[in-house]
Write a structure and sequence with these properties.
The chain has 160 residues and is α+β, with helices and mostly antiparallel strands. It is built from four helices and eight strands. A hairpin with an 8-residue loop joins β6 and β7.
């Protein structure tokens, strides 16, 4: 099943990107490959990207610092600060390019058990509609999110 982007809801409608996909893998495995640096390096990012993790501590207050390397050779530093970690149900974090990034956004990832399959929903909420529109326009964020989840599906199929 391919990833879908659903219409935003509530008072954050103009600031959200929501992407959902069902994986043919148990949620414990999907959660593990999302939170283990050895696994995530194999699938994170849109097509053509690679990821180098500098530090990853998946716990409330923990940080994941990494660089996404684009197919054109451009490096994109990223920093995630974990707010909530409930294994294997959800991750809540602030995602930005660097510490105190004015364009950082709040993300909630849920891992729903479907009896051997997992529905993953990734909800990114930006500070402003202009911030959301910027990442959609400049970084192709909606398509990039779909490609990232497709790469995760392929990795899970190989790992099974």
């Amino acid at each position: 099943m391919s990833a879908s982007t659903t219409p935003p809801h509530g008072d954050t409608a103009d600031r959200e990107i929501v992407t959902t996909r069902v994986f043919d893998a148990p949620r414990e495995l999907v959660f593990k490959v999302w939170t283990d640096p050895e696994h995530i390096a194999r699938w994170w990012g849109p097509n053509g990207f690679t990821t180098t993790t500098q530090k990853m501590t998946v716990e409330p207050g923990g940080v994941w610092e990494f660089v996404m390397h684009g197919p054109d050779g451009t490096d994109y530093p990223n920093r995630i600060r974990f707010i909530e970690v409930v294994e294997p149900e959800r991750l809540v974090y602030i995602h930005g390019g660097a510490e105190n990034d004015p364009n950082e956004f709040h993300t909630r990832v849920t891992f729903e058990d479907l009896g051997g399959k997992t529905r993953l929903t990734m909800q990114a909420v930006f500070k402003t509609a202009a911030g959301r529109d910027y990442v959609v326009r400049e970084y192709n964020a909606i398509e990039g999110g779909k490609q990232t989840l497709e790469r995760l599906a392929q990795y899970l199929a190989e790992a099974a």
